[in-house]
Amino acid sequence: MNNPKILSPAMLKTYQSCKKKYFLHYVRNIIMPQSATIFERGKNIHALAGYYLNGINIEKFEKALEKKEQDIWIALKNNEYFNFTPIKTEFTLNFKLEDFWFGGRLDAIVKNQDEYYILDYKTGNPPENPEYDYQTMVYITALSKYLKNDSNINFVYIDLKHKKNILIKATPEIIKEYKAKLLNVAKQINSISENNLPNNKNCKCEYSKICF
Q1: Tens of pLDDT, residues 22-44
Q2: Domain tally, the chain
Q3: Which residue, 145, 120, 118, 142, is CA-closest to 42?
Q4: I need a labelling partner for 200 at 20 to 30 A (CA). Which of 16, 35, 48, 169 fits?
Q5: Can you tell me the distance from the alpha carbon of 107 to that of 111, in angstroms, rounded to the nearest whole number?
Q6: How many Cβ atoms from other residues are within 10 Å of residue 17's Cβ?
Q7: How far apart are CA 56 and CA 62, in angstroms?
Q8: Structure confidence by residue, pLDDT tens digits, 138-186
Q9: Is residue 15 included in any domain, yes or no?
Q10: 156/171 Cα distance (integer angstroms)
Q11: Does residue 203 lie in a domain region?
């Protein structure tokens, strides 16, 4: 198959969870409808955070929040990492490894002294294995290439559901490992075809009704 233009963390996670779903969604371009309400609360918080970090007056927006959103927003505003110096918000970063492009949209990049922090706000559950989640690997590698620096980079999952932080410290060694893992999965994706997709009879995702 032709290489996708840019492999995002969502695409990589989909491939990891179900190759057939990846094929239907990203190769056959079949989009199945989902409830819009699933993501609304998270979208509102992300938008508000972006406005706030960019110095925009958000008092009217804050008053319009529903009670659960207000609780989440207060937790984020009081988070220690969220109060570091903002550098970029809703920032798209792309990078190339061999013949493959990767990238994504970072919620925020902040700085404290010489340390950079990628912030990711989670209104749902954080990943089970955050250090090796594709979002972590793509975002840290992207920022290291952007800054031309493999040190002083951190990733913070701000878990707003459980009111805790998950801090991942990047090192040159782990970034090298991330690059190898990303290249490996990209090469697997590049070889995907309709003839080598496993069947999962217990699948209950949105594609289950059309799964072949």
Answers
A1: 988 898 888 776 655 545 667 88
A2: 1
A3: 120
A4: 35
A5: 14
A6: 10
A7: 12
A8: 999 999 999 999 889 999 999 999 999 999 999 999 999 999 999 999 9
A9: yes
A10: 15
A11: no
- pLDDT band (50, 70, 90) for residue 131: very high
Which residue range is the domain that position 22 belongs to? 9-196
Q: Residue 200, Cβ neighbours under 10 Å: how many? A: 14
Residue 68 lies in a domain: yes
Query: Could you tell me the strand order of the sheet in which 115-122 lies?
Result: 85-97, 100-112, 115-122, 153-159, 164-169
Residue 1: inside a domain: no
Sole residue written with tokens 């250090």? 131
CATH number of domain containing 78: 3.90.320.10
Who's near 48: CB < 8 A, 6+ residues apart? 58, 61, 62, 65, 73
